[in-house]
Specification:
Layout (H helix, E strand, L loop, with lengths): L7 E5 L11 E3 L12 E6 L2 E7 L14 H10 L4 E10 L9 E2 L3 E5 L26 H11 L4 E2 L3 E5 L7 H9 L4 E3 L2 H10 L3 E11 L12 H25 L19
Parallel strand pairs: 1-4, 1-5, 5-11, 6-8, 7-9, 9-10
Antiparallel strand pairs: 2-3, 3-4, 5-10, 6-11
Helix pairs in contact: 2-5
Length: about 270
């Protein structure tokens, strides 16, 4: 059987379970157990792209149960060096509206007990999370969205909660008061694990709702509403991805993501 390969990988989030009509599909075994689903590889903008729905094709895996290490290792085993990590997300700020996209540049981890490293010894490895998201890919994602007529926020902080529950109003008010823009359940440890494997990673947050504590004058978020709004905007995300993939350079030269481990060990 011919070995599958791809340089670009995409994870699908809530409401985003399929990317290609024509594709090759493989079950991949990893040292960390099975990925969320089989990996499919298809062609987008003339380039080979790998896709995994992080919750499974039928949304059977809750955010805190996702095998993030297996998903990332599977992508790496195919040769992926550029990882696109779109997700459904809530807004913590009034000016960030449902239907708009945020290309996050920072995260805040509010999860608990998730396995969040590949490096458990015997070599001590300390990967910096100062700038997890790739500085080369982020502006390309913004430009791709703008070219598709999408309202793009070029930066923002995503606070990642444990899930599967949504925030209480008090928690939401607290997060918003810190100045953070986006709330989600899957960006950590996914993005950091990608960094540990020296991948370039970029997040594209599709805003589906205002979180429950925003000024106290919005309906509390529900999963059904998240899926509804995400579905209404899925076409915009798919158009953005095609334009974005088209503009990603074949070689990495404008970032140092491939040198992460050089600065992480004594």
């Amino acid at each position: 059987m011919e070995k599958l390969s791809a340089n670009i990988g995409i994870f699908g989030g809530s409401g985003f379970y399929k990317l290609f009509d024509k594709f090759e599909e493989r079950q991949i075994e990893t040292p960390y157990g099975p990925p969320s689903d089989s990996v499919v590889v298809g062609t987008m903008a003339g380039k080979k792209v790998a896709f995994i729905p992080r919750h499974g094709a039928k949304h059977t895996i809750a955010p805190h149960k996702i095998n993030y290490r297996a998903n990332l290792w599977a992508m790496k085993s195919l040769g992926v060096t550029r990882l696109i990590s779109p997700c459904a997300a809530g807004s913590l700020q009034k000016h960030v509206k449902p239907g708009e996209f945020v290309v996050c540049d920072q995260f805040v981890d509010r999860t608990s007990a998730r396995i969040d490293t590949f490096y458990e010894g015997p070599i001590a490895t300390h990967v910096s999370a100062a700038d997890t998201y790739c500085p080369e890919l982020r502006p390309l994602a913004v430009k791709a969205g703008e070219a598709c007529g999408i309202k793009m926020h070029p930066q923002g902080t995503v606070v990642v909660i444990q899930g599967p529950r949504f925030s209480s109003k008090a928690e939401s008010i607290w997060f918003g008061a810190q100045g953070w823009e986006v709330i989600n359940m899957t960006q950590y440890p996914e993005a950091h694990l990608a960094k540990e494997l020296e991948m370039c990673v970029v997040n594209i947050s599709l805003i589906t709702d205002y979180d429950s504590g925003l000024h106290g004058n919005v309906e509390p978020v529900s999963h059904s509403e998240v899926i509804k709004v995400f579905g209404e905007n899925l076409g915009k995300l798919q158009n953005l991805l095609v334009k974005f993939v088209e503009t990603i350079p074949d070689q990495r030269s404008a970032c140092k993501c491939s040198e992460t481990l050089l600065h992480s060990r004594a």
